[in-house]
Amino acid sequence: MIETEERMRGIEMGKDEIDDFLYEQGHGILSLMGCGEAYGVPMSFGYDGDRIFMNLITFGDESKKVDYITDTEHVSLTAYHVETRLKWKSTVVNGMLEEVTDDKYAKEVLDDNALFPTLYPPTEPMSDVTRVAIQIEEMTGRKGEEYQS
């Protein structure tokens, strides 16, 4: 079967649908550029309709993620969910990353809708947690045709 370009690219999602998806998803890939190369890292996130909040967790003395963030001005976050070839959704959020000053609010947003898998290595305890937010400059989203209703 020959796929049409439209069928392969999916259907554009509107702002409300992107908002709902980001709120429900709670995890994605944060893309950074620093240290002379690109770096993508899985991240849990909380979304409040305006910003995306994340915890930068450091284990031990070093963190590649934190090293890259100090060299990165613009970031990109990709969140996606795939059930079948024609039933999928994806969003890309671009913006500036900033450290969060209202720690209580960020924690509430993260507790509300971030997905936190267990990833803490028992032999290497957390040494630091920094909360950051993406100031969203652009959001796009697409979905497979089986989500069309």
Automatic annotation (TrEMBL):
It holds the Pfam family Pyridox_ox_2. Gene3D superfamilies: Electron Transport, Fmn-binding Protein, Chain A. PROSITE patterns: PROKAR_LIPOPROTEIN. It comes from the Archaea. This is Pyridoxamine 5'-phosphate oxidase family protein. It comes from Halosolutus amylolyticus.
